[in-house]
Design brief:
Layout (H helix, E strand, L loop, with lengths): L4 E5 L4 H12 L3 E6 L8 E5 L4 E2 L9 E4 L12 H24 L6 E7 L10 E2 L9 H11 L2 H5 L3 E7 L1 E3 L4 H11 L12 E2 L1 E3 H13 L5 E5 L5 E2 H12 L9 H8 L3 H5 L3 E2 L2 H5 L9 H7 L1
Parallel strand pairs: 1-2, 1-5, 2-3, 5-6, 6-8, 7-14, 8-12, 9-11
Antiparallel strand pairs: 3-4, 10-13
Length: 297
């Protein structure tokens, strides 16, 4: 991949910050979209929830990556917070897609974040990019989120959707909350532990995004998950082995529902998602197994 000018929304998040570090280390010029007044030529002002972007700041960009959105697991899902989750993704994507489409010289690719939550509850059924969307708040949000990129796609810009799984990392996301618990010896399976977790090492997440940026023949949805999803109980056991801690505690389903509310359905639910299209494109995972992914984190 030649050195390019790449705009990144969500550059301060878990995935975005890792992506920016990787791109910068390889000599790419990264432009960050920020909600405050820009402090340099490498920043562009935007307001995702109200759908505003300083379009002029995107001029000359070879690629635009949108990873912005209020954290799904940051707090309990009140109706107000669900609206924030929705607006930060759908309104932000709409604004960016329209901005990309309006440029005289458009970027060659628009990579838009999405999530494996699109498939909803899948039980032990394996799902890939050809599988239909599920029902409920997250699946319906993901469908609308991806549709919001329509203006860029319709303007002829290659558009990619990254349907990301649970990212194995210490610095944030679901795993960022699990590591301290397991290190303290308080880790254990959630519910009955039979639900499938589709995970991906942060290193592989970034490598996959860069793979999709570089390949001009790739567009549409890609599941960013490790090749073999595992039941929660097996992941719990792997955490215990790697961290050398007991995993005696189990969190009963009623307790999770009491603490997490509606969000508990996504913790207790099962998503057996596989990266069919990513593997078909020739991508190689550096940390495909759960123990390797945990050690990498």
């Amino acid at each position: 991949m030649e050195r390019e000018r790449i705009a990144v929304a969500g550059a301060s998040g878990l995935i975005g910050s890792a992506l920016v570090r990787s791109l910068t280390a390889d000599g790419h010029e990264v432009v960050r979209l920020v909600r405050r007044a820009p402090q340099g030529a490498d920043e562009v002002r935007w307001d995702p929830e109200h759908g505003r972007v300083d379009t002029a700041g995107l001029a000359g960009c070879d690629a635009v990556v949108n990873l912005a959105g209020a954290g799904v697991g940051d707090r309990r899902w009140s109706e107000e917070y669900k609206k924030r989750i929705h607006d930060s993704r759908v309104n932000g994507t709409t604004a960016l897609a329209k901005a990309v489409a309006s440029l005289d010289e458009r970027p060659r690719v628009f990579v838009n974040g999405s999530a494996m939550g699109l498939y909803g509850e899948t039980g032990d059924r394996v799902v890939d990019e050809d599988s239909p969307a599920g029902t409920g708040f997250l699946p319906e949000l993901c469908v609308e989120w991806e549709a919001a990129a329509g203006p860029a796609r319709e303007a002829g810009v290659r558009t990619v959707f990254t349907r990301t799984g649970l990212v194995v990392a210490r610095g944030g996301g679901a795993w960022g909350k699990l590591f301290p618990l397991f290190k303290a010896g308080l880790g254990g399976r959630m519910g009955d532990g039979r639900q499938y977790w589709s995970y991906i090492a942060l290193h592989d997440e970034v490598a996959a995004i860069r793979h999709l940026l570089a390949r001009d023949d790739l567009s549409g949805p890609f599941n960013l998950t490790a090749p073999e999803p595992l039941p929660n109980r097996e992941i719990t056991e792997a955490m215990g082995r790697v961290l050398r801690r007991p995993t005696l505690f189990a969190v009963p389903a009623p307790v999770l529902r009491s603490v997490l509310g509606e969000m508990a359905g996504d913790v207790l639910g099962s998503a057996r998602v596989v990266p069919k299209r990513l593997l078909e494109s020739g991508f190689t995972f550096a940390f495909p197994g759960i123990e390797d992914a945990i050690r990498a984190a």
